[in-house]
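User: I'm putting together a teaching handout on how sequence relates to shape, and I'd like one worked example. Could you take Porin family protein from Deinococcus metalli, show the sequence you're using, and then write out its predicted structure as tokens right after it?

Assistant: Happy to. First the sequence, then the structure tokens directly below it.
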Amino acid sequence: MKPIHLLAVTALATGASAGAQSFELGLTGGYANGLSGEAFIHSPNLIGPVGVKFGVSYARAADAIKDSSDLGAGTFASYKASGATESGTHTIVGLDATYGLGELAPGIDTTLYAGARYGMFRSTEDYGSNINATYSTNAFGVGGGVMVGYALTGNLSLVADLGADYFFNSTINQVNNTASGQTTASYATNDPNYGDISNRFVRPGIDFKARIGIKYVF
């Protein structure tokens, strides 16, 4: 993550040195495999219509554990019928190049974006009495989309964001808490058990997103 943060800071600092360069701070909410929100900073028109955007999003997973998955002791759906619960979170850091299409209609501006992603995904199946299993993975990816802004005042705009991210497979970590104690395991992508664990642990392969919010121009 550090290289991503350094690239973002460097790019935005370069924009700040341009004198009249503006910045956009935005906050959006909507859906991305669950209820989701994103905070972003955007420096448009660094070189002509090309700019850079850095954002962090967080989502509560709508589905964390696959109901039909069976690791040898019954499907998770059968355990849910007996009271088991599931929860999950998706945290995604993104660094994008942007391309401004300008004002397509009075007060409406459109920006295309594409870039790198770093996702941190976590899911837990909970059986009560401190018995649970948690799966987590950190994965690189790529993504893109379009932002459409509608000016409300001189500096404040509504913004809609539609896009999709794709994440590559990566090592899955598992932590099991049972009555006899805690155990851990890691599954690399070439592990013979990776497919079974990956099938149970729901996280984005392709993550479609639709959010709406506000942005403020400095």
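A couple of points you could highlight for students: Strands lie at 24-31, 34-47, 50-61, 85-105, 108-126, 132-151, 156-167, 172-178, 181-187, 206-217. The chain has a mean pLDDT of 91.
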